[in-house]
Amino acid sequence: MMQSTYTINDVKRVIDAVGDVAANTTVSILVTDSRRIINPAASLFFALNNRRDGHQFIVDAYAAGIRNFVVSHQPDTIMPDANFLVVDNVLAALQALSAHHRNQFNIPVIGITGSNGKTIVKEWLYQLMCPENNIVRNPKSYNSQIGVPISVWQMNDTHTLGIFEAGISVPDEMEKLETIVQPTIGILTHIGTAHDEGFEGREQKIDEKLKLFKNCKQIIYNYDQLKDHAEELKSHECFTWSRKFNLADLYVFSETTISGKYYLRAVYNQKEIECLIPFRDGASVENAIVCWATMLAMGYSAADADDRIERLTAVSMRLELKTGINDCSVIDDSYNSDIQSLEIALNFLDQQNQHHKKTLILSDIYQSGLEEEALYKQVAQMIKDKQVERFIGVGAALQANKAYFDLPEIHFYDDTAALIKDLGKLHLHQETILIKGSRSFEFEKVSRALVQKAHETVMEINLNTLLSNLNYYKARLNPGVKLMAMVKAFSYGSGSFEVANILQYNKVDYLAVAYTDEGIELRESGISLPIMVLNPEPLAYDKLIYNKLEPVIYSFNLLDEFVKFAQENDIAEYPVHIKIDSGMHRVGFEDFEVEALCDLLAVNNYMRVQSVYSHLAASDAEQHDLFTLKQIGIFEKACAQIEDTLGYYVIKHVSNTSGIVRWPNAQYDMVRLGIGLYGVDAAVSPDDTSLRPIATLKTTVSQVKKVLASETIGYNRNGSLKTDGQIATVRIGYADGYRRAFGNGVGKMLVNGVLVPTVGNVSMDMCMLDVSAAEVKEGDEVIVFNDQLRIEELAQQIGTIPYEILTNVSERVKRVYFYE
Ligand SMILES: *Cc1c(COP(=O)(O)O)cnc(C)c1O
After folding, report:
1. What range does the domain containing 700 cover?
2. Annotated binding residue at 51?
3. Is residue 687 part of a domain?
4. What residues sit in the active site (predicted)?
5. Which amino acids bring their CB within 6 angstroms of ligand 1?
6. Is there a single domain that holds both residue 160 and residue 121?
7. What are 137's strand-pairing partners?
């Protein structure tokens, strides 16, 4: 058995389902998202009750060819030859099926849990142990109640070791994951404060996590962290490590830095052993020690462990979307290649609309557990289904199976060097290119050749966080309320089509931009959602209409101009939006103008009023709540008058980000989500970690200098150190959006984890930091803002608001989008 295959009757028995089985087919693929279907005939669809009810997507999945479903109720639509297995709880059925599958194998399985470092430890153990093992592990960080069963389902006869991570966010989840993973060896990584909100306290969180290890033969953990849990762990064989206590099995007593590497000495079995780690940051060192302890616990020699750990490579689970040469977009996933992560990457490629042409550069895939022919047949089918137009394969195995690749354009190369030599001849131009390769192919070289050079200041946008922020607000909407995402001003500095593609894929209802040109840019990047334009310029009405953008009409003048244009161009019933000024006094019809407006609308069939809205001046501020109520009153009256005149229903909306949470009764038919999407909301406490900033602005150190207290630093000799010390010059200045007001100690940045102040005036392209208190060398990364050093804090330092900090980051700063 190479791939897990079960007959539908077996599945029915395992998950204890009812319902008629029309045809006893076999299934081998578990599907939970109807947008991600590869081989429908072999797929079993689980209609999970996730954010949205999976039963809504059964018709789509059926249309895509799936015939086997696990559901909590039979759908109303008649679907011939489909099997519906009806259960009480679809998620529990998925978990039960996976647990049953796990039971078929008797191999060592490592289970990893903890608050931080699970994925890194899992990937590093994979690197360390793959020479003698065929390892099955979670793709990326698929460690949830859904991710774990999907991961474990990959186990097959060829595997000799399983490594699975398990993550939980609320009590009671771990027991379920334990029955699926059934680890024989348990590893607890760092316990931090992350994800504390679902638990009563740290102790409850630890107790909960330890449930994964219930049946483990051996548990590996940091003694310093679990001193107080000795009682619970007593019945297990334990392997402990410590930096404080010499009674641990692995006692790390000395830590120093040697030429950029981290050198550890420890006592193990009464002997002194050593280990060199190719990373220096605290988290990596801790994760490497966990791996070190695990290797020793599993019987590797100290020499082997040292030798392999020294060669660990950085783990990146990220897909990075970057601006490529020749007007291309590049999705960089050059770290690893397996069939699940290829599927994830292809799916991300599929979400991109900015270019018609989609290209995949793929290396041979190792250790899939499938026979080569079967593997590449499956790969070729996936690629075809995702409508990749141009395929570039690198490696002997892909070459040998080239016959399966039936695509408009295919190229094959022996190795990466041959591809790079030929890149010019491929004329890559205006296309989205996915680069996906196994580590040994060194596809980072391909990526370097195809990505636009950036000076080393970049703004990274976390698309997962963008999505989780979106869902944070969706979860707070009353039933049926639509969502308009504000993507004006380059999505508050975060990007145009890159952000819009994700929003479109995740089905927001509307987008809004400030100007016609911003809307046109989105249309040219393939965005088909309705787009409202807040400030339509009458001179650009032709472009606006040609691009199917919907203008806001906020004055009699705009209305007249629009009518004139419509008359001249034979336009009728064009969708527009009416803006009411309920007290903000910026733009919009005031309440005394609404009657005159209605008179004009009554005799006007050039346009169709899509929505009526108003904007709140202080939705986040309690001291203005009475004023907000007054605004709401004025708005409601205007809406009633307009709807009465028109005789048809219009969408009504008033809430911006802070209004969504603070004024649930004013959500009406739609809300306009702006800065909250980007992770900032004055109405949400910064301790609520379910809303997080999506942007990280970072730069690098260009030079480090020793400076005496008697010397001065920068323009106008404004800066100096209190005592002799050192400064670091970094590659960001006011031309990048780091305002001059941050100079002379007002602003602070994070250098190797230490918060350090600016010193002297900020220059155009650089500024200086007082790093007397930090360890730093040229080339080190410096954080200007991220989820620790927050935009809100920067705004406060210079007396502005987060909106301005975000939108100030200049276009010169390259944006990199990642998805993990
Ligand atoms: C920018 C804008 C919003 C979004 O405001 P946030 O505070 O960022 O949520 C909503 N409505 C209008 C009219 C806007 O101009």
Report:
1. 695-819
2. no
3. no
4. 488, 715
5. 486, 534, 615, 656-657, 672-676
6. yes
7. 163
